[in-house]
């Protein structure tokens, strides 16, 4: 099977997954957004059980997520993740084109836990290229994380991995988190009215610092 055919097969499966996820959005109900660990969580910073857990629901094809990372990630990481003040958890919610988002997440996971966030952040920084030329972008970013083109190809056509990705996305939607980026601080959603790039660093800091200050 050629590389192009394999990518087409991946796209067909991912398109079916995307349709199922779109249908689930209508069924997704809002809840309190508990910060309990979930299957497949990827995390940085403080260990599990930390006083403050920040959960981000996001997608590598989401332009608002791209903007949030550009405007806030380094400041957030420096203030709270690198200092182990919070446990930062990233949860995957594929957004249109969903098949490309799924492929990006699969490559990030194939790169390994130590490089997962490097791949996710590079894909977000390359979001426009990812959407316009996914094959070349996935190869480039995968190569940068130490994966060969063949390994990237295997990642995005792995049926078991795609099924697991679907399960993670469905769990997020079932919890009522279909919009991206969504941030929860100890289970409470942080909102910045009027912001075009998700919660501001100021609002996130207020929510985090309030939780850190609790006895």
From TrEMBL:
SUPFAM superfamilies: Thioredoxin-like. GO terms for molecular function: isomerase activity. Keywords: Isomerase, Signal. Residues 1-28 form the signal peptide. The keyword Hydrolase does not apply. It holds the Pfam family Thioredoxin_4. It comes from the Bacteria. Coiled coil: none annotated. Residues 39-210 form the Thioredoxin-like fold domain. PANTHER family: GLUTATHIONE S-TRANSFERASE KAPPA, THIOREDOXIN-LIKE REDUCTASE RV2466C. Belongs to the thioredoxin family. DsbA subfamily. This is Protein-disulfide isomerase. It comes from Brevundimonas basaltis.
